[in-house]
Amino acid sequence: MKILHTPTISDAGGGSTSYDRLQQLKSFDESKAGVKGLADSGITKLPQIFIRPPEEIAADHQTQSQFTIPVIDLSGDRAKVVSGVRDAVETVGLFQVVNHGVPLKVLEETLRAAREFHELPQEVKREYYTREKMKKVKYGSNFDLYRTRYANWRDTMFCVMAPDPLHPQELPLLCRDVIMEYSRQIKVLGSFLFGLLSEALGLNPEYLESIDCAKGHSILCHYYPPCPQPELTLGTSKHSDPGFLTILLQDHIGGLQVLWQNQWVNVLPLHSAFVVNIGDMLQLISNGKFKSVEHRVVANHGGPRVSVACFFTLDNYPSQRIYGPIKELLSQDNPPLYRDTSLQDFNSYYYSKGLGGNSALDHFMLQR
C-alpha cells in the first residue's frame, strides 16, 4: 500500500510526556459513543490511540492489483463448483459467491438496517453498549481495545443468533425483523457451503455439519465512518477469523484486503455477492489443507462503509466437543500439524490475544 505519511510524535497527539494512553482509552470507552461519535464531533486529527506505530506503517506490504479473487457461481454444475471451491480455499482461503439463493432485497435491507442502527442517536445506542462477554446482543467499538497497540476505526453491533435461538425482542426494533430474516437465509447458505467444503476434503457432504461446524453463528454489523487521517490507522487490523467459516456482505465502498503472497490484494465489491473465507478452526481440522486467510480493512475518507459478517462458530456455548485434524485426512505422509482443542479454549486464546500480531493458530501447532 502506498504510504502517504509516516506519523511522528507530534502527529500522535502532542508528545509522549503528555499522553496517558490508558486514560484516553477509558475516556473513549466510557463515552459509549464509539468511533461514530468521534467522527460526528468533527475531529480533523486522529486521537493517538488510533495511530499505527511508525515502524508498522513503514513496513507495510505493497498492494498489488494483478491477482483476481475467485468468483464462484453456486448455480453451476456441482462437481465444477466443488472443484472451484477447493482451488480457492487451498490457495487463497477466500472467494466470492454469486447466485447463492439469498434474495437481493434481503441483502439491501440488511445493509440498510446495519447502517441505520449505527446512525441512531447516541442516547439510543448507548443502552446496547457493553463489554459483557455473555451478552447476546451488544454494540461496541474494538472488542480488544485494552489489549492491542492501537484501536481500529470501526464500531460493531454483535448478535449471537444460534444455536440457542435469539429472542427477537433482544434486537433493536429498527433492525429486528431484518436481522432475523437475514440469519435464517445465511444459515441455509452456510449449510450449503459446508456441504461443498466437505466434498472438497473428499468427505461425504454432511461431514462438517455432523461435527457441529454449522451449529452456531453470530452476525456482526460493522460500521466504518469517514476517517480524517486514514493513512495513519486501519478500519480493521490484520487478522484471520477464529471460527470455521465467515460469510461477509459488504457495501460498494470497498476497503477489504487479503494477504496473498506477502502482498495486500483488494477484494473489490461485487454487486449481490458474498465474500466467503476460511476460519482458523477449519484450517486446524483440515490439517492445513484449507487456508485461514489473513485480511484487514483499510480506513478511508469516503463512506461510511458498512459490512455484515456472519461467523460460523459457537460463541459462549458450552460444547464439550474436542476438535483436531480430521482422522480421515491423516496418514504417515500427512501427520497432524495441530493439537486437539475445544472451541472454548481456542476462542479464549484468540480473544485474549486481540487482533494483529501472529496467528492464534501458531499457539496450537504441534512441535516438529
UniProtKB/TrEMBL annotation:
Residues 215-314 form the Fe2OG dioxygenase domain. The keyword Zinc does not apply. Gene3D superfamilies: B-lactam Antibiotic, Isopenicillin N Synthase, Chain. It comes from the Eukaryota. PROSITE patterns: FE2OG_OXY. Keywords: Iron, Metal-binding, Oxidoreductase. Pfam families: 2OG-FeII_Oxy, DIOX_N. Belongs to the iron/ascorbate-dependent oxidoreductase family. This is Fe2OG dioxygenase domain-containing protein. The lineage of its organism: Eukaryota, Viridiplantae, Streptophyta, Embryophyta, Tracheophyta.
